[in-house]
Amino acid sequence: MKVFSTTCTFDYSWDEVSTANWRKYCPWNDKATHVVGVDTVSRTVDPKTGILRTERLITCDQSVPAWLLSLFGGSTTSHVYEVSYVDPISKKVTMCSTNLTWSNVLNVRETVTYSPSSASPTSHTEFTQEAKITALCGGWQKIKNKVEEASVERFRENASRGREGFETVLEMSRRVFGEQRELEKALL
Amino acid sequence: MAASIAPECNDIKEKYDTCFLKWYSEKYLRGNTKSNDCDELFGKYKSCLHKALKDKGIDGMLDDARKSSSETDAEFLKKS
Where does the record place the PRELI/MSF1 domain (chain A) (predicted)? Predict the structure, then answer.
């Protein structure tokens, strides 16, 4: 198993980040073109805790190293299942994702969280990401290692692009919400 | 908003996503967690999507994955 983890702080409040997070993969984000579909399969609010639970199917189309494709089969389209929890009281978003495609040879478990930053909780948000990658293909440890390393490398690339793209979405969201508020004020 | 995996569901998905985002930012985050403004739109979107998932043969692997979410449910659905 290999682990990839990263953290960063966004210069936006938790309310803003947790809202914009729902449209992380929208056309404003030109850095996540490998995500071609985001579908919500189920959504409920726990009546006791107020926790919002959402299940999504995320569909990606991305280039895969040729040697990996020859190992795993021909398609570059892959599906990810994500279940997320928003706790509005403690202000925490937790998103757990796992791969549906190639799941017989590779297990990827990713956990992402967004919480108010401890240093400036009203204006900044802390992001953490951890991915555990395990190659399941039987046989040579050497091949397993190579598969895991290639997957971690892809995670690293997508993570930095992901952050860049999300920054754009945050900026656009703030602008659009601001304009909406102005409009509502003008109409009242 | 991101597209649906099923192009025929894009219109209803867009309507639902817009409704959800408004509800989330204006009601849910302000403590009104029991309101259900978008249920009707979600119902329509879901029925469109379910048919597409079945046709594409994704429903089976999705169901398998959903079974394993009880682990994270136990950890993250509890009261903080």
Answer: 1-178
Helix, strand, coil percent values for chain B (each to nearest 5): 70, 0, 30
Instruction: Please state the domain count of chain A.
Output: 1
Q: Which residues of A touch B7 (CB under 8 A)?
A: none
Higher pLDDT, A40 or A158: A40
Report the residue of chain A nearest B43, measured CA to CA. A42
CATH number of A59's domain? 3.30.530.20
pTM of the model: 0.91
Domain encompassing residue A124: 2-187
Chain A: nearest CA to B43, how far in angstroms?
A: 10
Q: A50 touching B, CB under 8 A?
A: yes
State how many domains chain B has: 1
Provide the ipTM. Answer: 0.94
